[in-house]
Amino acid sequence: MVKVRIGGETHRLQELLARFPAGSVIFREGDLGREMFIIQKGHVRISLSVGDHEQEVAVLEKGDFFGEMALLEQSPARSATAVAVGPAPAAQAGHCRPDDDEALGAPA
């Protein structure tokens, strides 16, 4: 069992996982973002709006992370759309929020 310490509390990693069935939109370009994701299983397609269609810019896999731009930039708006895809029935992503200082490596 893997345990993670966030905000002074210990959590089982399983408690922090969000599951996204294949084809589900995790977030859309322009949405407000307050968390980032680390893929534990499956694939996630990242795309940008170009005119009236979506342009795929990356397909991420286990170990990749996404959504961090909304945390690092001055604007919390999502810069791309993320959709769960791939051969796995679900993309599982661990997520952390800006108030989870310890999870983001901030000093305690």
Quote the distance from N terminus to C terminus.
24 Å
For the biggest sheet, the summary is: 4 strands, antiparallel
User: Helices and strands: which structural class?
Assistant: mainly beta
Unreliable residue stretches: 101-108
The H-and-E topology, N to C, reads as EEEEEEEEHEE
Radius of gyration: 14 Å
- How much beta, percentage-wise? over 45%
Q: What is the average of the pLDDT values? A: 77
The number of strands is 10
Tally of contiguous helical segments: 1
Strand order of the largest sheet: 3-10-5-8
Task: Give the helix level as a range of percent.
Answer: under 10%
Shape: globular
Which SSEs are present, and which pair or pack?
Blueprint lengths: L2 E4 L2 E4 L4 E5 L3 E3 L8 E6 L1 E8 L2 E8 L4 E2 L2 H4 L8 E5 L4 E7 L12
Antiparallel strand pairs: 1-2, 3-10, 4-9, 5-8, 5-10, 6-7, 6-9
Give a nutshell description of this structure:
The protein has 108 residues and is mainly beta. It has one helix at residues 69-72; strands at residues 3-6, 9-12, 17-21, 25-27, 36-41, 43-50, 53-60, 65-66, 81-85, 90-96.
